[in-house]
Amino acid sequence: MRVLGIETSCDETGVAIYDTERGLAADVLHSQIAMHAEYGGVVPELASRDHTRRLLPLIQRVLDEAGLTRHQLDAIAYTAGPGLVGALMVGASTAHGLARALDIPVLGVHHMEGHLLAPMLEDAPPAFPFVALLVSGGHTQLVEVEGLGRYRLLGESVDDAAGEAFDKAAKMLGLDYPGGPAVARLAESGNPARLRFPRPMTDRPGLDFSFSGLKTHTLTAIRRLEAEGALDESARADVARAFEDAVVDTLAIKCRRALEATGLRRLVVAGGVSANRRLRERLEREAAKRGAEVHYPRGRFCTDNGAMIAYVGAQRLLAGEHDAPGQMQAVPRWPMDGLQPPDGG
Ligand code: ATP
Ligand code: MG
Ligand code: FE
């Protein structure tokens, strides 16, 4: 089955074709990062308009790259939520219109299920069951995954997501949006011994996270250095390093706890922050100590992309799931624990 996947939940227009027999056939992406950068974050109205402009040409491009015509598609999957409602509606209505024209099934899928299963597109995909750490711009969650649609939320952020914290720290340091990669780059030259930031919520049991206090701590440290006239480039790097170390350490501690609590030895890390090199190194060290394995998506599938949507859609479409005709879905808020396996059981 050849499935066209469409992702438009936020600031990336992603389109891919996944073939359930042959794997990923093609994958294209247009990022709106440069367009939103001058505003310091995503402007929803601009995002929707740009998806409208880009989506059809990208669908043609992915077909060309795969050497297929649209008549060779068997189904369409699109991101139904969570995300920006206007942006979601562009993908949802295009998917439904195209599916109606081609007379093929169409299915709205959950964006975070896409992130969660993105590592399945790699050469050595993780087997079920596993613990997943979902760390993206809008989510920080630990999930016990037994199979497709069998998810148990173990813990999540009570305030900011890890990616959001990276983005806000970047802003305080005068770095461009999106902040994660910029903070990580600046942290490279930082001295890890100069400043130490707190590891929120690690001093008590539990698998929830909180990153908003770390944000305040970062701002306080920057203001203090500024007042001392000491906020030079090397001090900014030290702040970035202290911030990154605190986030990485906090995530690693909770992952270790989640593996202990579930007795599992397989960890999947996905979402934009899973691209972070220091986080990967830290989790690999932890896993090696415990005889556990860690899986990630390749770099370009850590952040939003069409491939993960095509993959998840394919699994569910193959099991017979699809939207009712004309029932396009655009669900801005949609907790993942409401998901079910395709057979409903
Ligand atoms: P969600 O998936 O929760 O709706 P989103 O789609 O905006 O949110 P993603 O596209 O998965 O999130 O990831 C973007 C986030 O990942 C941003 O917050 C960005 O700063 C962060 N990020 C990307 N690369 C890195 C990195 N190397 N280190 C840390 N953070 C990173
Ligand atoms: Mg994004
Ligand atoms: Fe995302």
Gross CATH architecture of the largest domain: 2-Layer Sandwich
- The CATH topology of the largest domain corresponds to Nucleotidyltransferase, domain 5
Could you say how many structural domains there are in total? Answer: 2
Radius of gyration: 20 Å
Structural classification: alpha/beta
Termini separation comes to 24 Å
Low-confidence stretches: none
Task: Estimate what percentage of residues fall within beta strands.
Answer: 15-25%
Mean pLDDT: 97
The ligands found in this model are: adenosine-5'-triphosphate, magnesium ion, fe (iii) ion
| Helicity range | 40-55%
Number of strands: 10
Order of helices and strands: EEEHHEHEHEEEHHHHEHEH
Sheet of most strands: 5 strands, mixed
Name some characteristics of this structure.
about 350 residues; alpha/beta; Nucleotidyltransferase, domain 5; 2 domains; 5-stranded mixed beta sheet; 10 strands; binds adenosine-5'-triphosphate; binds magnesium ion; binds fe (iii) ion
Give a structural overview.
This protein has helices at 33-37, 44-66, 85-102, 111-117, 162-172, 179-187, 212-227, 233-262, 277-290, 306-318; strands at 2-7, 12-19, 23-31, 75-81, 106-110, 130-135, 140-147, 150-156, 266-270, 293-295. It is an alpha/beta fold and 345 residues long. It folds into two domains: 2-117 and 301-338, Nucleotidyltransferase, domain 5, CATH 3.30.420.40; 129-296, Nucleotidyltransferase, domain 5, CATH 3.30.420. A five-stranded mixed sheet has the order 3-2-1-4-5, with helices on both faces. The protein has a five-stranded mixed sheet with strand order 8-7-6-9-10, with helices on both faces. Helix 5 packs parallel to helix 7 (212-227), helix 5 packs antiparallel against helix 8 and helix 8 packs parallel to helix 9. The longest helix has 30 residues, at 233-262. It binds adenosine-5'-triphosphate, magnesium ion and fe (iii) ion. Adenosine-5'-triphosphate is lined by residues 10, 83, 111, 115, 136-139, 163-164, 166-167, 178-181, 184, 271-273, 275-276, 303-304. It is found in: Cytoplasm. Its EC number is 2.3.1.234. It catalyses: L-threonylcarbamoyladenylate + adenosine(37) in tRNA = N(6)-L-threonylcarbamoyladenosine(37) in tRNA + AMP + H(+).
